């Protein structure tokens, strides 16, 4: 049956994988899934209590608890020195080799209308969502180049090492209320795609791959926190997405990594359609046929979707008298 079995581009058994934001939500889901597939897993986040309790659950998901190893590192990854130190600690723990792959899930959304946000939020959102991943990637790419890969199977086979970024469906279509967050998530897409090309420089001696995941709504504590600040109109615009559990998002992410996708969606047809409408010069999945055919439909559909969304936003502003100068100010 070997002929029909396609290559697994993301083997994890016996590998060491670092997951940022691994203490809850999607990151924890991914860490548990990788543990179940036989990987050694490190998780990084700030809050130690959450890290400890997540690590317990990850350990319980292990395929073989007698051989697999698990560890947590507490670090604020929006600080470049802390991110570099986290990769150093991970390398020391992993007997001197950097983690084989890194999955960056750390992130959080601060919602609100642009004019209502304190300017500090723009910087915080870049730190939490963009710099946390950029600094982690920078530190691990340097470590990878300093530690050439050791062949896992035959002497000739060099397994690529992978860095995975987590963006969002909001990177494909504007959603009112998300300015501070979406800009950081779009920056992650640009980083991932530029890196995927730049990594080709090292293809012969130190193959590396970068990927970007674009989840839709993920249920959990992160979503509950962001919803407290989310404008009603934003909730209306997001209604087309039913949402997924962290476990569903984790499973779809790993499945797509295994099939070798660079840009990964995890929301069924909705995600595939939104992605295909924004491909430009981006890498297609497989031979690109499905992306290409789908894009015929979505360039048309998305124009209508956008019109409908804009109509909702315009009507909302009108109903709430937004932007109107109060009479007593005149
Ligand atoms: N929830 C959703 O609807 C969607 C989420 N996403 C993105 O998917 C990812 C996962 O989302 P979700 O499952 O909701 O995540 P959660 O909010 O549940 O968890 C976020 C994780 O990131 C960690 N983290 C946050 N900031 C930092 C930091 N500065 N340094 C280190 N760790 C940090 C948190 O731990 P601690 O606070 O202890 O540091 C926690 O482990 C995020 O990047 C999010 O932006 C994308 C689309 C939709
Ligand atoms: C053919 C195209 C049809 C388009 C339909 C539009 C509806 C899609 C809704 C998507 C909702 C956005 C979810 C991500 C939110 C997010 O990233 C935050 N929650 C972060 O925490």
Automatic annotation (TrEMBL):
Q: Which InterPro entries match?
A: KDSR-like (IPR045022), NAD(P)-bd_dom_sf (IPR036291), SDR_fam (IPR002347)
Coiled-coil regions listed in the entry: none
Tell me where it resides. Endoplasmic reticulum
GO CC terms: endoplasmic reticulum membrane
Q: Which reaction does it catalyse?
A: sphinganine + NADP(+) = 3-oxosphinganine + NADPH + H(+)
Keywords per UniProt:
Endoplasmic reticulum, Lipid metabolism, NADP, Oxidoreductase, Sphingolipid metabolism
Q: Does the keyword Glycoprotein apply?
A: no
User: Which GO terms label this protein's molecular function in UniProt?
Assistant: 3-dehydrosphinganine reductase activity
Q: What is its EC number?
A: 1.1.1.102
Q: Name one Pfam family in it.
A: adh_short
Superkingdom of origin organism: Eukaryota
Annotated pathway, please?
A: Lipid metabolism; sphingolipid metabolism; Sphingolipid metabolism
One GO biological process term: sphingolipid biosynthetic process
Q: What does this protein do?
A: Catalyzes the reduction of 3'-oxosphinganine (3-ketodihydrosphingosine/KDS) to sphinganine (dihydrosphingosine/DHS), the second step of de novo sphingolipid biosynthesis.
The protein's name in its UniProt record: 3-dehydrosphinganine reductase
Species of provenance: Ramalina farinacea
């Amino acid at each position: 049956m070997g002929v029909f079995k396609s290559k697994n581009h993301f083997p994890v058994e016996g590998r060491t994988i670092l997951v940022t934001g691994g203490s809850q939500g999607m990151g924890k889901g991914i860490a548990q899934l990788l543990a179940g597939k036989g990987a050694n897993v490190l998780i990084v986040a700030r809050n130690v209590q959450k890290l400890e309790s997540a690590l317990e659950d990850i350990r319980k998901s292990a395929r073989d608890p007698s051989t697999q190893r698990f560890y947590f590192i507490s670090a604020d990854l929006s600080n470049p020195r802390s991110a570099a130190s986290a990769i150093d600690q991970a390398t020391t723990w992993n007997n001197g080799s950097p983690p084989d792959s890194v999955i960056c899930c750390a992130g959080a959304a601060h919602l609100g209308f642009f004019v209502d946000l304190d300017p500090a939020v723009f910087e915080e959102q870049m730190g939490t969502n963009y710099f946390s991943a950029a600094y982690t990637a920078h530190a691990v790419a340097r470590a990878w180049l300093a530690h050439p890969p050791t062949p896992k199977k035959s002497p000739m086979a060099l397994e690529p090492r992978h860095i995975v970024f987590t963006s969002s469906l909001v990177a494909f279509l504007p959603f009112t209320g998300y300015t501070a967050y979406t800009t950081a998530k779009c920056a992650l897409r640009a980083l991932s795609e530029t890196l995927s090309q730049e990594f080709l420089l090292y293809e012969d001696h130190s193959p590396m791959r970068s990927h970007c995941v674009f989840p839709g709504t993920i249920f959990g504590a992160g979503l509950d926190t962001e919803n407290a600040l989310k404008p009603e109109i934003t909730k209306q615009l997001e209604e087309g997405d039913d949402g997924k559990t962290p476990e569903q998002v984790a499973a779809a992410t790993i499945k797509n990594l295994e099939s070798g996708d660079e840009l990964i969606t995890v929301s069924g047809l909705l995600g595939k359609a939104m992605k295909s409408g924004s491909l430009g010069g981006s890498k297609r999945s497989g031979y690109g046929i499905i992306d290409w055919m789908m894009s015929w439909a979505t360039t048309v559909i998305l124009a209508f979707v956008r019109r409908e969304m804009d109509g909702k936003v315009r009507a909302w502003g009108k109903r709430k008298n937004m932007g109107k100068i109060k009479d007593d100010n005149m």
